[in-house]
Amino acid sequence: MMPLLTTKGLSRNFGGLRAVDGVDFALMPGEIRAVIGPNGAGKTTFVSLVSGRIQPSSGMIVFDGADITNLPAYARVRLGIAYTFQITSVFANLTAYDNVALPVQRTLTDGRSKGAVHAGVMAALERTGLADRAHMPAGQLSYGHQRLLEVAMGLALKPRLLILDEPTQGLADSEIDNFIGLVREIAKSATVLLIEHNMPVVMQLADRITVFNAGKILAEGTPEQVRANAEVQAAYLGTTP
Amino acid sequence: MKEVSPAKAYALHLGVIALLFALSFVLPEYHHGLLARIMVLAVFAMGYNMLFGYVGLLSLGHAMFFSAGLYGAGLAVIHLGWSVPAAFAAGLACGALLALIIGVLALRTSGVAFMIVTMMFAQVFYLIILYFASWTGGDQGLVVPQSARVLVLGSTSLGLTNPTVRYMSALALFSIVLLVTLAVVRSRYGRVLVAIRENEERTKMLGYDTFSNKLAAVVVSGTICAASGAAYALLFGYVGSTFASVQYSILPLLWVLLGGAATTLGPLIGTLFMYYVVDITSGYTSAYLLIVGIALILLVLFFPKGILGTIRQRWLGWLP
């Protein structure tokens, strides 16, 4: 099977810092892949390169067989790469409905039917449990609900690859359980690339885990393999005294 | 915000248009003429509001779009002897083309740089008008001859110097632009423009080409401002470089801020308010600008989002 996403020698320098350093990465369709690593390992920079928010210094990115290295971010979104922000960045002054209507109306090829937007918006809001809050300004939603709205916006793009950047950050434990269920459901129709610090979430969700350290991939494998990897333990989980 | 009864919003706008229509028959001559002028300039403000209010792009150069319409229409009549409709179309075309060129260049910047770049282009436009004085009349300006300001419709010809024809022409233009603005801001495109204003980076990550959307908004805004300028030249018969000066870039900003940015009726209210404050106070004292200044300060204190913007925020959330 052909990978959905591959990167070859992908690098990004910020001044003298090599935030992402020659990363070769492959992601199979339908997978839930977690990306972990200590702070400053280059995880967010890596997914920002994939989503097109920043340009690489060198290397290439291939999505579904096509070189997308030079495509602007919006064009990549149209190919099916959706990115949900680490720092919640919903449109605070617009209602939850309008927030989701923006991605829905863009994905509709049939631009005429008013009902289609409404149906699409409500479907995405219902999947994330926000339907009864549709007409609240997004800025007035609780933090947890704003995170869910962020996911609803990602879902509404009907992505083939959904990148979730620390989605459970700041969520309560009960919300995290719901969230795990939601990601599993999303994974039925999309490939998920997940940056996450919460280890129980990673271990429950991920089919495979990629460990970043100092801009490079340190290890990759199933949760069990990564857990047993001595290098990972040293770099990330801490050395045993 | 968007899903609330559209009928109510359209009823309000049609009501305003009906009121302006009725006023034509009751207003004394002086106010009749003043209101016609205000309606034309409110179109200028509405064009400005499209970009400033909805997309959040603060331009300090919109005088160039107004005067592109003004000179485009005026010079076509004076030098080429074009008919009124053709001249109006020429004004629109000049404004649209200029907006497209300026948009492509100025949208490479944002924020303060965008303000400065648009202001510089407007200044260049102003100086070009002065430089080609043999064509444009320089700082004296040109008068569009009365004989040319006749709108021929089939067998009837309407003189645009006639107060009623002038008022109704101004009202027609105002109504069309008002309803177009309302339709645009309620549309999906309007939703994208507001999204760009609120968070451009996020809008890109929803798959929108924000540059193209902003460019389209600049062209729509510039064309509406040019329509106002072209109507001004044809209805009031004067084409002058003052309209290209920086003052006329600041005025629409002031009108929009007063009336309420990102409200459809705010530009009319702001223009109306400003004209009447000046008109009334200058009747009492030569130091009227002092009173105008105080009025503006009070307004900023008590209506920080403009008259209509604050009303919407506090009482009438459904206002478009």
From TrEMBL, chain A:
The keyword S-adenosyl-L-methionine does not apply. The keyword Methyltransferase does not apply. Residues 5-239 form the ABC transporter domain. InterPro entries: AAA+_ATPase (IPR003593), ABC_AA/LPS_Transport (IPR051120), ABC_transporter-like_ATP-bd (IPR003439), BCA_ABC_TP_C (IPR032823), P-loop_NTPase (IPR027417). One of its GO terms (molecular function) is ATP binding. GO terms for cellular component: plasma membrane. Transmembrane segments: none annotated. Keywords: ATP-binding, Nucleotide-binding, Transport. Gene3D superfamilies: P-loop containing nucleotide triphosphate hydrolases. Pfam families: ABC_tran, BCA_ABC_TP_C. SUPFAM superfamilies: P-loop containing nucleoside triphosphate hydrolases. This is ABC transporter ATP-binding protein. It comes from Mesorhizobium mediterraneum.
Automatic annotation (TrEMBL), chain B:
One of its GO terms (molecular function) is branched-chain amino acid transmembrane transporter activity. The chain crosses the membrane at residues 9-28, 34-57, 88-107, 114-133, 167-185, 215-238, 250-276, 288-311. It is found in: Cell membrane. GO terms for cellular component: plasma membrane. InterPro entries: ABC_transp_permease, LivM-like. It holds the Pfam family BPD_transp_2. Keywords: Cell membrane, Membrane, Transmembrane, Transmembrane helix. This is Branched-chain amino acid ABC transporter permease.
